[in-house]
Amino acid sequence: MAVTIINGKEVAGLIQDELAVKVTELREKGVKPCLATLLVGEDPASQVYIGQKQKACERLGILPKHQTLSATTTEAELLSIIEGLNNNPKINGILVQLPLPEHINSVKVLDAISPQKDVDGFHPFNVGKFFTEKSFSDMVDKGLFLPCTPYGIMELLKRYDVPVRGADVVVVGRSNIVGKPIALLLLAADATVTVCHSRTKNLKEVCQRADIIIAAIGKPKFVTADMVKEGVVVIDVGVNRLPEGLVGDVDFVNVSQKASAITPVPGGVGPMTITMLMANTIMAARNQAGI
Ligand code: GUN
Q1: Above 80 in pLDDT, residue 74?
Q2: N or C: which end of the chain has fewer CB within 10 A?
Q3: Which residue positions does the secretion signal occupy (predicted)?
Q4: Distance separating alpha carbons of residues 187 and 52, to the nearest angstrom
């Protein structure tokens, strides 16, 4: 059976077209959505991500307000900038690009962002909201800020008609940004979820049982063809820069021989993350305007 290459770029384009219409409607009501982004230091990958986020804002009619801060910025300085953004009614969403330099406590920083402007969905208030919600569709209907990468993955699965209810899903990786939240979202969508990590015993055997694998471990080509069953759906969240170029956490060439559907890197999950950030920003603007 031929493998389906899940085209995240295309789906992201379709959703962005829908979002652009929403922005136009808001602007007609005098609401101009604005996303503030903060980057501390000069990490090249983070610079690329921030650039992509700014471009997406411009494409959709969202105002991007970016500040790059020196790598020596103190935690107190960063917290004070966030407080200013929290109190500025023109700013609807705030995103602090991670990772932060070692001397800054990222938990403290994420806690400082107003939950109403937390378009990343990383604030404990918003995490708690979706932790306690039972159904994925309720989370969306109630307008929770869902973390962008997991939210984007759920949209991809939906738009490619991948059955999630009752499916055996293996998440490889347990980060706060991807592994843990995607496990919760899939659980709320009635999947049977197993979360694996670097200490998991028999990882290969666990992965071989999966109907869907979410690879978010941060190791290039970590998921190999011998670890997956025929017909598996593979979502590759990895972005690893090798001399040969960008590669994911999945050995794409060989795994795609066995998979029924698979996301490429680049052009899979990445564009969806940015798109869901835009969706969250528009929702924030609408909520803050009371529309
Ligand atoms: N670094 C890697 N992914 C993300 C993300 O989704 N949000 C933020 N703020 N930083 C990141």
Answers
A1: yes
A2: N
A3: none
A4: 30
